[in-house]
Amino acid sequence: MSNDIMDLLELYDEDSEVLESKTEGNIKSVTISKIRREMYCPICGCRLHSKGTFTRHPNNQIFQGSYVLKVTLTGRRWECSNPDCDYKETDQFKFIQRYKHNTTFNDISIIREMKDINLSCRQIAPKYNVSDTYVHTIFSRYVSLPRLPLTSIISIDEVYINISPRFKYALVIMDWITGDIIDILPSRRKEVTSDYFRNIPKKERDQVLFLICDMYDPYVNYTKNYFRKAKPITDSFHVVKWILHLIRLYVNQVKKKYQERDRKALEKKNHDNNSSIEKAKDSREVYILKNADWVLLKNEKNFTDYKGRKWNHFLNQYMDRYDWEREFMALDPNFKKIKLYKDLYETFNGQYINDVEGASARLDELIEFYKDSDLQIFREFAVLLSKYHDSIVNSFKYVTAAESDRYQDKLRRLSNGPMESFNNIPSGYRTQSHGIEDFEFSRNRILWAYRQDAHILGVPKSADEVHNNTGKKRGPYKKKNKKKKE
Predict the structure, then answer these.
(1) What digits encode the pLDDT tens for the residues 431-448?
(2) What is the pLDDT, as a whole number, of residue 91?
(3) If pLDDT is split at 50, 70 and 90, which confidence band does 388 have?
(4) What average pLDDT does the segment 258-269 reach?
(5) H-assigned helices in 149-283
(6) Nearest Cα to 152, choosing from 189, 186, 178, 126?
(7) Residues 6+ apart with CB under 8 A from 86
(8) Alpha helix locations (H) across 147-235?
(9) I need a labelling partner for 475 at 20 to 30 A (CA). Which of 26, 161, 288, 335 fits?
(10) Rounded CA separation 329/331 (Å)
């Protein structure tokens, strides 16, 4: 019988053949046997005699559409014909280990299922009639992904995984050109990163020309400590995010002033009317401050969501974008100035495409302008811009199609945008897993799901190598007594 079905199931063994293949209802049954041939004793060289047959039924009940696959293995037990030799052996199949219930097809299928980061070990296990511990062990044995080589442009950021109180943030290193994740470290702390980066050959580290990061000083200092030929790039998104954070705090301060005014008015009302109202409905001013802070925070080009007049039940009137702006701006004399100053930087941030010198000159002007401002938040902003002046200017470097095939004909600004998109994957995985304790397993799981060309180990690790010995003693365990038949 043709062995094509063995190739289909990836049950590779040149000494085996398919004896029978049939389908009954929704069950596909395949019987595989060792090819009949003369056997000789490896000790004395005498022929081996068959002492009967045996059958094995490995766990191969895998749903394929609406079908269930069942595999039956048949082999023989052998004994040396030399009466002075006690050698005995049993037929073994290359695609299944002795005393095991799962074929390599099962194991490889499980590993493929693990490509879906949204599936947990517990969800995959029932499909293959195995335990979730088995799925965890098989994946750890076959998947151990190495660090990828460093490239000319790398992006660095942290992601919250909370392995322990000391190791809350993992460090992610991305190849910005291809989008591949170079590696994930268990922590961004110096005690972890210092040895890691210094163990990378200097020649490889010197290939890095740009390092993209946020305004976390240790990341910026990587160019001084490890990547001497690289220029630091402060992601433009984080600079804008910083000033928006200060503006949001200012709006909250204004809102608290109105809330305090309303609280005092309520106390007076309670006193005059001999009542005990604990909390009144928000005033018009507080409602507008809560629901229209986008007037200051959003960019003008994103105001399209607020076109048209809509009835507002709280204010009891129709409101359009201009109504919201007028009502909001009237609540504090500094709001118009804040919007003007913020828009100046956002306009600057969108200009000077591949013009680093022009961006540097304009940034110097903005710093001087903000320093002379009567608003504290922009004076603080000027200090920030001065501190990260060079790395902000470097962010106006754009990559052309010749430097990166990833973006085809488009110019692409160097930023942490691709990294921010990736960070949703480990964050979602941590949430779904209800926390991360085994970092190595989680690292490989994330990389296995994200890398397009990831490969399994040719020689899998042993079960002892991947066993996670925590050193904790197992707690008391009592078997439930079976009920005696009456």
Answers:
(1) 877 777 788 999 999 999
(2) 83
(3) very high
(4) 92
(5) 190-198, 202-205, 217-220, 222-225, 236-273
(6) 178
(7) 80
(8) 190-198, 202-205, 217-220, 222-225
(9) 161
(10) 5
Mean pLDDT confidence for 165-181: 89
**Measured between alpha carbons, how far is 411 from 260 in angstroms, rounded to an integer?**
51
Instruction: Determine the angle formed by the axes of helices 376-387 and 356-371, rounding to 10 degrees.
Output: 150
- How many C-beta atoms surround the C-beta of residue 6 within 10 A? 21
Length of the chain: 486
DSSP reduced 3-state for 175: strand
Q: Do 153 and 399 contact (CB within 8 A), yes or no?
A: yes
**Global model pTM greater than 0.85:** no
H-state helical runs in 350-438? 356-371, 376-387, 389-394, 417-422, 424-432
Phi-psi region of 101 (alpha: psi -120 to 50; beta: other; left: phi over 0): alpha
> Do the strands 67-80 and 169-175 form a parallel or antiparallel pair, or are they unpaired?
unpaired
Residue with tokens 């945008």: 417
CB-CB neighbours of 24 under 10 Å: 8
- What's at 28, amino acid-wise? K
Burial of 275 (0-12, 13-18, 19+ CB in 10 A): exposed
For residue 145, CA distances in Å to 68, 84, 139, 157 come to 33, 51, 11, 20
Q: Within 13 A of 313's CA, how many CA atoms are on the CB side?
A: 0
Question: 11 and 95 in contact (C-beta within 8 Å)?
Answer: yes
Q: What is the mean pLDDT of the chain?
A: 84
DSSP secondary structure code for residue 194 in this structure: H
Q: Which residues pair with 380 in a beta bridge?
A: none
Q: Is 184 helix (H, G, I), strand (E, B) or coil?
A: strand
Contact 437, 167 (CB under 8 A): no
HSE of 276, CA atoms in CB hemisphere, 13 A: 0
Cβ atoms of residues 440 and 126 within 8 Å: no
Structure tokens belonging to residue 170: 């993992």
pLDDT value of residue 1: 47
